[in-house]
Amino acid sequence: MSAPISPNSEAIKKGRKLGYARVSTASQTVDQQVAALRREGCERIFTDEGIRATNAVRPAMEEIKATLAEGDVFVVWAIDRAFRSTMEAILFLDELMRRGIEFKSLTQAIDTRTPEGRKWYIDTASWAEYEREIISRRTREKMAHAKREGKHVGRPHKLSKRCTVRAHAQIQDGEQSLSYLAAQYDVAPITIKRAFMRHGLKG
C-alpha cells in the first residue's frame, strides 16, 4: 500500500527519496516509521502492515521495487523492516546498484555508495537475521516447555473449565441438548465435545 505525500507524487522527477515501512502484526502501526521517513523528505511511502519479514509476498515491497528508477534513493527506518534474510538483502543491494539506486537506513546511518557502507549494510542485515532466528528459537523452546508441563499453547480455549463442566452437567441431566448449548456459547458442537475430552468428561 503506498501513501503519497502529495497529489503530484506520481509525476516526481528522478532523484526521489522513496520510503518503505513495515510492521509484522495488525496490532502494530507504521506511524513512527512513516513520520521519520517524511522528515527525511520521502516523496512517497509504501507500507506493508501486518506482514512479517519472512513473508514471501509483500505487496508494498513489490510496488516500491517496481517504482524505483535510476537516481532514486530507497529509504527505510531500519534495515530489518525491509529484508527477511541476509541473502535477500545482498541480492536486493546488488539490484539497486545495477539500476543506479541508492539505499539509506535512517537508524543505522548506512551509506551504500562506499565499500565500508556496503560492508556495514551486509553486517547489519546479517545481525538482524541472527536476532530474528534467536527470538524464533526461544519462542519454540518456550512452547515446547509449556507443552511438556501440560500447559495450553496458542489461542485461549473458547470454553472455560467452568462453562465446560456446567454444560456437561446440563447434558447429562437432560436439561439441555448439545446443539442448544453450542448456540448459547456461540461455538460449534464439536468445540463442546473437545472441551469435554480436554477435561476428562465423558458424553
What is the topology?
Elements: E1 2-4, E2 17-23, H1 31-39, E3 44-49, H2 59-67, E4 73-76, H3 86-98, E5 102-105, E6 110-111, H4 115-148, H5 161-172, H6 178-185, H7 189-198
Parallel strand pairs: 2-3, 2-4, 4-5
Antiparallel strand pairs: 1-3, 5-6
Helix pairs in contact: 3-4
Query: Looking at CATH, which topology of the largest domain would you report?
Result: Rossmann fold
Broad CATH class of the largest domain? Alpha Beta
Kindly report the oligomeric state of this protein.
single chain
Number of domains: 2
The separation of the N and C termini measures: 51 Å
Kindly report the average pLDDT value.
80
Describe it.
The structure is a single chain. Strand 2, helix 1 (31-39) and strand 3 form a beta-alpha-beta unit. The chain has seven helices and six strands. The protein has two domains: 2-134, Resolvase, N-terminal catalytic domain (Rossmann fold); 161-198. The chain is α/β, with parallel strands linked by helices and 203 residues long. The chain has helices at residues 31-39, 59-67, 86-98, 115-148, 161-172, 178-185, 189-198, and strands at residues 2-4, 17-23, 44-49, 73-76, 102-105, 110-111. The chain is elongated. The longest helix is centred in the middle third of the chain and has 34 residues, at 115-148. It has a six-stranded mixed β-sheet with strand order 1-3-2-4-5-6, sandwiched between helices. 47% of the residues lie in helices and 13% in strands.
